[in-house]
Amino acid sequence: MDFSGTWKVYSEENLEEFLKVIGAPEMVVKMRKDVKPELVIEQNGRDFTCTVKTPFCSRVNCFSVGKETEICALDGRKVKCTVREEDGKLICETSKFTSVREIQGDEMIDTITAGSVTFISRSKRV
């Protein structure tokens, strides 16, 4: 599956609850809830560079499928994970959350679960 491209988030469900569950500072929760980020994904085989852009900041995460790496989570903290690919989906498990990124039709869906809270983000290519 080719995730390359620029993606604009148009829908987010349970963002505020998710950020609170993972312990994000209140300031991050307030700033982030009204912002729809843009994601730029560069894929070269099994190597990925993912840039998340908001009016407040940009974050870059680089990883290779199957290799342990350190990524910056939604709350800005760094966590270690190994991204794996299953059935065309990118799956990242950390001690705080599990993230599944997939493409369905013309949209990319990110489903991130922490405890009993699931955050769902939907994006379209721009």
Automatic annotation (TrEMBL):
The lineage of its organism: Eukaryota, Metazoa, Chordata, Craniata, Vertebrata. It comes from Poecilia reticulata (Guppy). Coiled coil: none annotated. Signal peptide: none annotated. GO terms for molecular function: lipid binding. Belongs to the calycin superfamily. Fatty-acid binding protein (FABP) family. It holds the Pfam family Lipocalin_7. This is Fatty acid binding protein 10b, liver basic. InterPro entries: Calycin, Fatty_acid-bd, ILBP.
